[in-house]
């Protein structure tokens, strides 16, 4: 198995003790060639075979020679029987046509093996996919139940102002969050978790993520009455990581909806380059008008063909995930603003580290403004933090001897 970089965004962590970063690499379960072959549909294989036969016939007619051949029709017949490895022997290649015949035979063997392999494994793959989907749903549902229970314990411990219990519950939630997120991202990358039969349980998981971040928001906005730096760090990191995970999963859902066969992808690409609106015949010359009308006709036909296959941004699942993602992003912004507008142990430590040594006469005028600019907080908040440190008798600070 080949090691490949994890295809996710960077997950932010502000607390090394409570947050375990996802692994930097994931094992690819199939090779690049295997993935390319797996993506090919029956239509792709048939079209590929037709193109190979027609291309070989054209090359043989232009650059090669067949004994007892009367022209292009005989070249097509010869290419077909060579591609299917029948080889009747009534036509024989000469010169460059021999090289084309070798390549055509190899292409025919590859086509036959791929077609037989797809037929033979289709039923088995369907059964394995059903078993795998059932197992994934069971595992994700178990994660949801566990995280939901831990979230209730966190709110209860925080409401009771039980610092040790709140700290340990946050640590446990982060640990289980890491396990569930790694499991979901791995299977979304490797086994199309987002592409078949798991929408309902994944939406349930996203709602649990939303509840967890809401609890982190409650902790952050009430930390004045419940100041604890470890709780502050863990809840802030968990809020950021849950928001990152929902963004990653949204991208993986979009990617799974854009997983077309090669023929469908080509048709969709051609359709998107054609005009989608009626043209005004009076404003154009007759030749240009006919050209644009033909393009519009082709567009409408391709739209009918690809209507059920093309990615739809208004899909109900994507709309639901976007709604949760937007809500979590707005809440995370509020948490960050809260961090910068409310005095907390972490902010006090940052201000303390930036304060010069010596008594107030050594500080100079406008020390709070320079600290505010350094920490990107308001001047009033910086001054309040300095006053708090003075009241706690942590300032002035003097050099150690």
UniProtKB/TrEMBL annotation:
InterPro entries: K_chnl_dom. Pfam families: Ion_trans_2. GO terms for biological process: monoatomic ion transmembrane transport. Residues 1-22 are annotated as: Disordered. Keywords: Ion channel, Ion transport, Membrane, Transmembrane, Transmembrane helix, Transport. Residues 50-121 form the Potassium channel domain. The chain crosses the membrane at residues 42-63, 96-117. This is Potassium channel family protein. It comes from Pantoea trifolii.
């Amino acid at each position: 198995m080949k090691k490949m970089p994890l295809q996710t965004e960077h997950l932010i962590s502000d607390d090394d003790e409570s947050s375990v970063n996802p692994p930097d690499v994931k094992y690819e379960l199939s090779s690049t060639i295997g993935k390319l072959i797996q993506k090919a549909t029956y239509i792709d294989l048939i079209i590929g075979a037709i193109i190979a036969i027609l291309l070989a016939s054209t090359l043989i007619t232009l650059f090669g020679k067949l004994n007892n051949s009367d022209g292009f029709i005989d070249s097509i017949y010869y290419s077909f029987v060579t591609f299917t490895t029948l080889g009747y022997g009534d036509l024989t290649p000469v010169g460059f046509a021999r090289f084309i015949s070798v390549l055509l035979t190899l292409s025919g063997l590859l086509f036959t093996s791929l077609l037989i392999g797809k037929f033979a494994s289709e039923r088995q793959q369907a059964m394995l996919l059903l078993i795998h989907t059932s197992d994934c749903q069971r595992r994700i549902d178990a994660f949801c139940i566990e995280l939901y229970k831990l979230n209730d314990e966190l709110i209860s411990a925080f409401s009771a102002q039980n610092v040790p219990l709140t700290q340990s519950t946050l640590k446990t939630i982060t640990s289980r969050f890491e396990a569930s997120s790694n499991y979901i991202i791995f299977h979304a990358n490797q086994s199309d978790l987002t592409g078949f039969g798991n929408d309902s349980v994944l939406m349930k998981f996203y709602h649990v993520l939303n509840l967890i971040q809401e609890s982190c928001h409650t902790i952050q906005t009430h930390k004045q009455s419940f100041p604890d730096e470890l709780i502050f760090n863990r809840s802030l990191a968990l809020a950021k990581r849950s928001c990152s995970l929902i963004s990653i999963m949204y991208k993986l859902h979009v990617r799974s909806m854009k997983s077309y066969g090669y023929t469908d992808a080509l048709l969709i690409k051609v359709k998107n380059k054609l005009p989608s609106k009626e043209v005004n015949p009076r404003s154009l010359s007759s030749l240009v008008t006919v050209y644009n009308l033909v393009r519009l006709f082709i567009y409408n036909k391709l739209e009918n063909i690809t209507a059920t296959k093309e990615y739809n941004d208004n899909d109900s699942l994507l709309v639901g995930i976007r709604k949760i993602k937007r809500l979590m992003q707005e809440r995370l912004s509020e948490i960050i603003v809260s961090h910068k507008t409310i005095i907390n142990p972490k902010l006090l430590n940052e201000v303390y580290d930036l304060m010069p040594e010596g008594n107030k006469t050594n500080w100079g005028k406008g020390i709070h403004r320079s600290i505010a600019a350094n920490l990107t907080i308001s001047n009033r908040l910086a001054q309040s933090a300095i006053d708090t440190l003075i009241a706690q008798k942590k300032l002035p600070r003097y050099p150690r001897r």
